[in-house]
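Tokens in:
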């Protein structure tokens, strides 16, 4: 299903359709403030495993990332100290992924690597979906550098490619081509491990 949702004013009925699919263990393709991404309810292990298999992600070796609606319940899913929390508050919502140690509330699949990426994108569509779902969304971009860029940015072409894979493809307008900036906050000093969109404000 291709579902048009406007970022300026996400339609609650359309959001409800997406949330219902996620509650049933489905997968969705959606816009963020960087690239279009595919995701599922982050606490539904079977759905997370499905996306990992689809994207060739080994959760033992790769950081899994989740989208939260805001920073109010970050401590449920990641261990974060006061200085890091203050920095996150300065930069989120925004195009950043903060790598943090996981907590026991996340399913075992996230604990293999003991870390999780936290995203709060500056995109009202996906944040509203997370808010209404009541759980974070496991997220990974659909960008494939081996194919035409339009298949990662144009919602109609994204739908053409993903319609038989994802339960819903959200048309939230043209997508970007720059990934998020990834910041590792697990060591003694924070480290930018991938410079993408956005300039981190310390």
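Residues out:
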């Amino acid at each position: 299903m291709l579902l048009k949702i406007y970022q300026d004013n996400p339609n609650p009925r359309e959001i409800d359709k997406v949330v219902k699919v996620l509650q049933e263990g489905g997968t969705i393709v959606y816009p963020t403030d960087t690239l279009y991404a595919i995701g599922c309810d982050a606490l539904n292990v079977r759905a997370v495993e499905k996306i990992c298999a689809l994207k060739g992600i080994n959760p033992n070796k790769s950081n899994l990332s989740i989208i939260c609606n805001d920073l109010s319940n970050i401590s449920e899913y990641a261990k974060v100290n006061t200085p890091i929390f203050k920095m996150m508050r300065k930069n989120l919502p925004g195009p950043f992924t903060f790598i943090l140690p996981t907590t026991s509330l996340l399913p075992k699949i996230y604990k293999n690597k003991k870390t999780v990426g936290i995203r709060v994108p500056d995109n009202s569509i996906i944040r509203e979906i997370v808010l209404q779902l009541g759980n974070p969304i496991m997220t990974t971009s659909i960008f494939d550098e081996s194919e035409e860029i339009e298949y990662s940015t144009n919602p109609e072409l994204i739908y053409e490619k993903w319609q038989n894979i994802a339960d819903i493809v959200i048309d939230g307008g043209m997508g970007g081509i720059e990934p998020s900036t990834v910041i590792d906050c697990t060591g003694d000093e924070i480290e930018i491990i991938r410079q993408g969109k956005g300039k981190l404000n310390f």
